[in-house]
Write a structure and sequence with these properties.
By secondary structure, this protein is of the alpha/beta class. It is built from five helices and seven strands; from the N terminus they run αβββββαβαβαα. It is globular.
Length: 126
């Protein structure tokens, strides 16, 4: 709400969640900074919940991300209230992931007879 009051045009949620791994042989953190960012499918439920919460609290477009690897993942974020989505980590394993996500969204919309994706934004709230 603070960024909305400060004049933000949109809010992007989320990137990573702080995580850690320990080498049990050396008994030391595996990451140089002791902790780092966990991303990808593991954070999807967290990201989806944050998008749902924030989209319901502010009157700004929300860009959802965090574990989006398929069209179905993207549709969930849109239904949670995201006006746009981003697919990041999935691109490391599959450089075509963003296009695959787009195709999945298009297939879902065609199957469900939806002509305008705006009909889905926040649909989980109705």
């Amino acid at each position: 709400m603070a960024v909305a009051e400060a004049g933000a045009d949109a809010i992007s949620l989320i990137n990573t969640v702080k995580g850690m791994a320990i080498d049990i042989i050396t008994r030391q953190p595996l990451l140089g900074n002791e902790s780092g960012g966990l991303s990808g499918p593991a954070i999807k439920p967290i990201a989806l919940g944050m998008v749902y919460e924030v989209a319901g609290a502010v009157d700004l477009p929300v860009i959802g991300g965090g574990g989006i690897a398929t069209g179905s993942d993207a549709v969930e974020f849109i239904m949670a209230g995201a006006s746009a989505i981003q697919a990041g980590t999935a691109s490391f394993a599959n450089p075509h992931a963003p296009l695959d996500v787009l195709e999945g969204i298009e297939q879902f919309m065609q199957k469900e007879g939806i002509e305008d994706i705006a009909e889905l934004v926040g649909a989980a709230r109705h």
